[in-house]
Amino acid sequence: MEATAVAGIDVHKAMLAVVMGQEGDGEQHWIRRKFGTTVAEIRHLAAWLAEHKVERVVMESTAQYWRPVWLGLEPHFVLHLAQPLSNAAPRGRKTDFADALRLVKRLLADELRLSFVPDAEQRPWRHLSRTRTKLLSDRVRLQNQIEALLEEGQIKLSVVISDLLG
To answer: 91 and 145, same structural domain?
Structure first.
């Protein structure tokens, strides 16, 4: 059975720390490399990973910085997004390449807690439904604020009409 290459990416705002190695190798040889987070750099990363025959990529990010990386790599690789707490380092020993290496090792050992990322077809629908829910919530909040402001001005408009904005 041929070993497949696996990569771990510790995602930051302006930098990606990438560690790549072979799955199933007894004697591990890890390649470490830094990339930027621009679209051109993410394309360069995808080409570099494809050149090394990487099939699986695991990444970790404490903020939303993983999204452009995910979108750039999604057509080419099987991707996993690790929850940061499942890849915690010993206190005081945080380094980016060590985090990326630990991601790969924990993925191979099935020790990571992975986040759910909807597929490309489902994402726009989720975004649309969540945006609608947020807008409806904002409308109710603003209506309540308007009513409270009128009450402070001793205007009891809500006693006379049933819908303040209707």
So the answer is: no
